[in-house]
Amino acid sequence: MNNGYKIYTGMDQNMQSGLQKTYSDPSFFPQASDGTYANLLRLLLTKREAVNALVGNVNTEGSNSFTDYNYATMSKRSPGSVIKPLIVYAPAIEAGWSIDKTVDDSPADYNGWKPTDFDNQWRGQIPMYTALANSYNIPAINTYQAIGPKVGNALGREFGLDLSSKNDVLPTALGAGVETNPWQIAQAYQVFANGGVMNDAHLITKIENAAGQVVKTAKVTKKRVISKDTADKMTQMMLGTYTNGSAWKASPKSYTLAGKTGTNEDQDQWVVGIHRMWLWLSGWLCGWEI
Predict the structure, then answer these.
(1) pLDDT per residue over 59-72, tens digit each?
(2) H helix or E strand, kind and range, residue 231
């Protein structure tokens, strides 16, 4: 209650309490040589974009998880490979590519830029769903180049990413030169779980006065970003991330997840998981790099 007003949220108190308990113990979090901590944030959304739980900072002696900087909503970080489904593979499927279309994973030279993968290995001709699940870089760059960066970025903007003409370059396919935050990424990925439709993520659902009258409700805008067919195919591809791809070690035993992982040069680690009822995003954000 606040001055006779009652505020309703989509928060799940059990989830939120559990997260807060974890974040109150800094011993769970890596610490740099200067004493600062890395930050593991977590954001959970329902299919209708109501936030179930949100914690964006580690509660330490010099930092309060509620009043200090919130990495989930305020940070500006490179998304790394979590951008690939948004500006590479979803646009390709929208353009008519099949999920088993063959893509090339071979050494490439893009005007002096010679990207590799973490293991410096090459797989040759592979299906697109394998390239996404394992987050291989060369197939993503080649696909982005084939559909056209302007086309990929136009859809990225529909997903809510802040992209301009300066991002119409091949490194954008790997997240280079892009700034976003977990709130935006979670909202974007919810499109896949929601049949191609985006609803604005929100914390407060409604406010009532002392008489129980609703004085304010969340104005949740809705728009179609991709077709349902594309959303279903993307979700099908991203199942491989947890079954045999880059996040197979994090695959839960009791339910099925689709999603994507990503890293960037700041050593942030992104993990997005999509369940049929909700979405969660967590990631190590290296606070001492900000």
Answers:
(1) 555 554 444 556 66
(2) helix 228-243
